[in-house]
Amino acid sequence: MHDDGPDAFGAFGQEPFDDEEFDERGDEPGDGGGEDALLEEELRQAAAVLDPVPAELLQLAMDAYTFHDLDGRLAELTFDSLVDAIPVRGATDVPRMLTFTAGALSIDVEVTSEGLMGQVMPPQPAGIEILGGSRAPRPTALTADSMGRFTGDAPPTGPFALRLRAGGEVVVTEWLRA
Q1: What are the tens digits of pLDDT across the range 112-163?
Q2: Cβ-contact 163, 171 below 8 angstroms
Q3: Are 140 and 132 in contact (CB under 8 A)?
Q4: Are 166 and 120 spatial neighbours (Cβ–Cβ below 8 Å)?
Q5: N or C: which end of the chain has fewer CB within 10 A?
Q6: 49-79 pLDDT, tens per residue?
Q7: How far apart are CA 83 and CA 81, in angstroms?
Q8: What span, in angstroms and rounded, lies between the C-alpha atoms of 142 and 36?
Q9: Would you say the pTM of this structure is higher than 0.90?
Q10: How far is CA 79 from its chain centroid?
Q11: CA torsion, points 86, 90, 91, 92, in degrees to nearest 10?
């Protein structure tokens, strides 16, 4: 057996580490400064260039992010005009119509080149977030009025999903490509 008592370090001419010595450095993770934070950022940049995240893994991460709010219910896509509608001959720049359903709640959305608009049924005020892919740094927030109507000025680009908060309930749609 080894003796790791107080004299174990003294036998090699060393002093044990002092925790206060490390507390005084000021470059603890999360303090926003110091050499460690600078090194961490340089390593992140090098990893992004030398070993980027594969697109498939990024998509899986975005899909998993949908469920980060475990209280949220998944709204099923029940109508998509790209798949379910009969095309009209000669029509150009036709808006994309989407309907999502979660129990008695449904969300009708019209996506155009100018933005999106929609309605929550049954009509009620709600907060709506447009979740974007890696291109959108943070969700775009919209508000539905007492009739459940909402509009957004910018059309979603790339993959997107909607998160609806109404009456203490959270509903998240599945991810779609704009």
Answers
A1: 888 899 999 999 999 999 888 655 567 788 999 999 999 998 888 778 889 9
A2: yes
A3: yes
A4: yes
A5: N
A6: 888 888 888 777 776 665 565 556 888 999 9
A7: 5
A8: 39
A9: no
A10: 24
A11: 130
| Residues 29, 36 contacting (CB under 8 angstroms) | yes
What tokens appear for 85 in the block?
A: 């509608």
Which one-letter amino acid corresponds to residue 38?
A: L
Q: Residue 80 is which amino acid? A: D
d(CA 162, CA 175): 8
Question: 84 forms bridges with which residues in the sheet?
Answer: none
CB 139 within 8 A of CB 169: no
* Encoded tokens for 112: 């155009």
- Kindly state the helix (H) or strand (E) to which residue 173 belongs, with its residue range: strand 169-173
Tell me which residue has tokens 């002092």.
18
Q: How many residues does the chain have?
A: 178
Q: Hey, what amino acid is at 46?
A: A
Alpha helices (runs of H) in the chain, residue ranges in sequence order: 19-23, 34-50, 55-65, 81-84
Distant-in-sequence, close-in-space partners of 165: CB < 8 Å, separation ≥ 6:
126, 127, 128
Phi first, then psi, for residue 56 (nearest 5°) are -65, -40
